[in-house]
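pasting for the record
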Amino acid sequence: MLLLSHVAEPLANTGVVLIAAMTLIGLIVFTVSRDVAVFLVDAGLLFEEFFFRIQRLVVPAFAFLTFYSLLIILFASAYHILSQYTGKPHFYVGGSPQVLSFSESIYFSIVSISTVGYGDIVPHSSVARLLASIEVVCGFMLLLFGVSELLEYTRERREEDGKPRRPPRR
């Protein structure tokens, strides 16, 4: 660009080149402005429809996440109590037996219920393995039933929206 300015400056007045460039840019913007406006209106309508649909799922999704969080906290409390108040080690952390802090118990509960299982915290005793297994099954069942209920809720709402509204009975 700098080289072009050194070459073009002797050939033309810099002000005229600037005005010509700005006119060209203005013509390009004017030519595509209708397409840009149509695109923005279409995008706005899509977002409006998306947020309208999501709005109907806020309550059931919140209920699902609340119950999921409650399960995580309940199992984390059980892991913490088992780890803190019994004599033998129930968990291996980093390959060595350790007592779990509550934050480690929450972490282990989240990793277990989501069936990720990183392996950095491992249940060692039969009781800890049984608890972790129950949590995995509960998490899996909650996920299945939760998604099923969300889908059922949206289906019912869609059917309600499709039917004509009846006046309330007196």
